[in-house]
Amino acid sequence: MAKAPLDLTTGPIGRNLLLFALPILAGNIAQSLNGSVNAIWVGRFLGEAALTATANANNIMFFLIGSVFGIGMAATILIGQAMGAKDTAQARRVMGTSATFFIGLSAVIAVAGWWLSRPLLAAMGTPAASLPLAEAYLRVIFLAMPTLYAFAFLSSALRGVGDSRTPFRFLLVSVLLDIVFNPLLIFGLGPFPELGIAGAAWATLIAQTLSLIGLLWYMRNKRHVLWLGRKDMALFKVNLEILKALVIKGVPMGLQMVLISLSMIMMMSMVNHYGTDTAAAYGASLQLWTYVQMPAMAIGAACSSMAAQNVGAQRWDRVRGTARSGVLFNFALTGLLILPLILLDRYTLALFLPSGSEALDVARHLNHIAIWSFLFFGVSFVISGVVRSTGAVIPPLLILAASLWGVRVPFAELMQDRLGADAVWWSFPVSSLCAMLLSLAYYRWGGWRKARMLPSHREEVAASPAEVPAQPPSPVADHDPDPVGGR
């Protein structure tokens, strides 16, 4: 039998949250490094046209993966709530319906994408020299969509039962295989065919498929609580109530990714007006910010899983403790990254800029202004992760929309007459501070505790802390006044 899933409703909150978040963080870093290694192979050895081709094709791939991010999170929360309530039958029902949904959707995308690759790339304005290369790459990526979606879904499901280590282990296997297969298939080394740019996509497909098979074998061999075998085929029949929750709750969470992407495109268009040096400086800073925001994203995802289990168990004291620990860990881990990036920014930013570039001083200037915003961003991400664990997904979306499109973009646009390019840089901390304050206000006074993922779970999930029977105190001082405003 498999080792019992981690019960996030007991034990030290801070310790369990950190141990749960670290594999998620390590996985995010591994994926980013994998992308950088692949870009080096393609850019250095196949040329700028090939690198442009993969950049355009990857934009489509990231959009498709990001579009189901919210649905995967909804599955995580549903499974987490069920496990917290000790209702493994419900967790398995969610698993079956979600698996059918993801498999069906990915199959449709794979078939449609094979035929629509060129029109999609042409609509994006892919340069003519890169279009054939991008099409060859993207077609194979579309073939990989079923395994990419399946792996992402299984990772979300496992985190719902309290297991973030197993998805990380198999993600690491996938990354290492991808790195190994890239040069073999691009250049045709040894017995492998020379596939050029398509080889990079085939490397992703093969690596992801082998890792997925390994993960499925592991779950079957360990008789994992979420493993559905031949005798469980009835669970793959779509439960309309669960499917409705996945879509209605998942889409708003996915829209948050869309809003962030669109705002970054808008900011980039503003920066471009200030010339190549400023645009290059901003681009170099973005490379650093990719890593700076990773701790907050990992902690936020961990908070969703931990809070969901405790919502299911009606342990509201531990839900508050999860928020409190998440905020503290955000400041500690994000701060530990920001400090050296400020002190050593002349060297870190120079990694992405040509030697002697005038853009370096611009990059250092804007980095000193904007990088602190990720401390505020992290608090918002953590609080959003906690409140959506009950099913409250619309308010975090509205808060994000208000901070990005009601504050950041207008501030950057309207203040340029006074501040020039500095208006763009200052818009980051100003909007992030607003998002943090709104998130904390909603956490303290909002109705998120009464939200629910499924109508049938109204009473269990909607119970307020005052209605929950007294519980023994956890090892963390859960009954102390909540510094982030929980009641």
Automatic annotation (TrEMBL):
It is a multi-pass membrane protein. Residues 462-487 are annotated as: Disordered. The keyword Secreted does not apply. This is MATE family efflux transporter. It holds the Pfam family MatE. The chain crosses the membrane at residues 59-82, 94-116, 136-158, 170-189, 195-219, 240-268, 288-307, 327-349, 369-387, 394-411, 423-443. Residues 477-487 have a biased composition (Basic and acidic residues). Keywords: Cell membrane, Membrane, Transmembrane, Transmembrane helix, Transport. It comes from the Bacteria. Its main location: membrane. The keyword Transport applies. It is found in: Cell inner membrane. PANTHER family: MULTIDRUG RESISTANCE PROTEIN YPNP-RELATED.
